[in-house]
Amino acid sequence: MARALVSGITQQLGSFITSEFKLTASVKEEIQKLESKFRTIQAVLNDAEKRQVKEEAVKLWLDKLKDVSYEMDDVLDEWNTAMIKAAIAKEEEEGEAETSTAKKRKVLPLIPNINFSILHHRDIAHKIKELNEKLDEIVTERVMRLHGFELTTRGNALKWLRDH
Fold this sequence. Notes:
The structure is a single chain. By secondary structure, this protein is mainly alpha-helical. The protein is built from 4 helices and 2 strands. It has a two-stranded antiparallel sheet with strand order 1-2. Strand 1 and strand 2 form a beta hairpin. The C terminus is likely disordered.
């Protein structure tokens, strides 16, 4: 029984590690997708502002979209700031590496920088994943309303609004 428990835990842990690795490894690609979505959302919000939308349901949907766009902007800013800091740190390391004594001093601090980079990529990847989930909910809500359904707060059950 203990072996079965350990085996189950090992499989779950392996699956978790694999998913975390994939998420972290694909963060650059996800950043590009997030930038594209962000530009599209900004265009939708600009169009809506020009049209001066009057329907309350649409206004509510646009407000949710605007909130997520602010979060997206924050994540993109965080990523860009981290990339700039990494580039500066790399330039400083290359400048200091010209002397052999500097090389010796820089060997030990490299390990924390690598760990920080991996942890930061993982953190950004999780933020992007959460944003994508929020966007999916907003899009689903809008599509369902367009087709006469409304999402309820209980178990995401669908309710038919139109009279049959």
